[in-house]
Amino acid sequence: MISQILFIIGAAIFGGLGLIHLIFTFFSNKFDAYNAEVVVAMKSTSPVITKETTVWRAWVGFNASHSLGAIFFAAIYIPLAILHMQLITNNVWFSVLPSIFGFSYLLLAQKYWFRIPFLSILIATICFVFGCLLINL
Predict the structure, then answer these.
(1) Collapsing DSSP states into helix, strand and coil, what is residue 52?
(2) What percent of the chain clears pLDDT 70, i.e. is strictly above it?
(3) Where does residue 2 rank: exposed (0-12), middle (13-18), buried (19+ CB within 10 A)?
(4) Cβ atoms within 10 Å of 3's Cβ, excluding its own
(5) What one-character DSSP code corresponds to residue 113?
(6) CB 84: neighbour CB atoms within 10 A?
(7) What pLDDT digit, counting tens, does each position of 115-124 carry?
(8) How many beta carbons lie within 10 A of that of residue 21, not counting itself?
């Protein structure tokens, strides 16, 4: 079934992006600022909401939780599409949700991120939309 393959591909793209992002967050300097003074400032100041953390720790936490969200989405939808595709095909919510998820991330990628995640998320979202259309038309 083509829709099943499209859902798996789309979810796998999100899972892969999430995993790469998580690795970059904890095992690289990819999300450090080029200006080392900015990193020092982030590590030495707190956000207005609380003094219990620093802007740097919040930054790392936001990146990690963002990664885990994409990984979790893939961890749900890949087995769901492989083992229980009938749940997706018989339920409009489960067939439309990945498209909503994809469009939400696509808007974020367009406004805040850069080309590689934008194009990857665009491909995943196209997979979800066409998978959904094949199911619901």
Answers:
(1) coil
(2) 100
(3) exposed
(4) 21
(5) S
(6) 12
(7) 999 999 999 9
(8) 21
Question: Token match 């919510």: residue?
Answer: 93
**Which residues have C-beta within 8 Å of that of residue 87, sequence separation ≥ 6?**
80, 94
- Both tokens assigned to 25: 């967050």
Of 96, 95, 122, give the one whose Cα is nearest residue 108. 122
d(C-alpha 108, C-alpha 119), whole Å = 12
Segment 16-22 long-range contacts (CB within 8 Å, at least 24 positions apart): 16/74, 17/70, 17/117, 17/120, 17/121, 18/66, 18/67, 18/68, 18/69, 18/70, 18/71, 18/72, 18/73, 18/74, 19/67, 19/71, 21/63, 21/66, 21/67, 21/70, 22/64, 22/67, 22/68, 22/71
pLDDT at 16: 98
Length of the chain: 137
pTM of the predicted protein model: 0.93
- Distance in angstroms (rounded) separating the CA atoms of residues 42 and 33: 10
Nearest CA to 74 among 102, 93, 109?
102
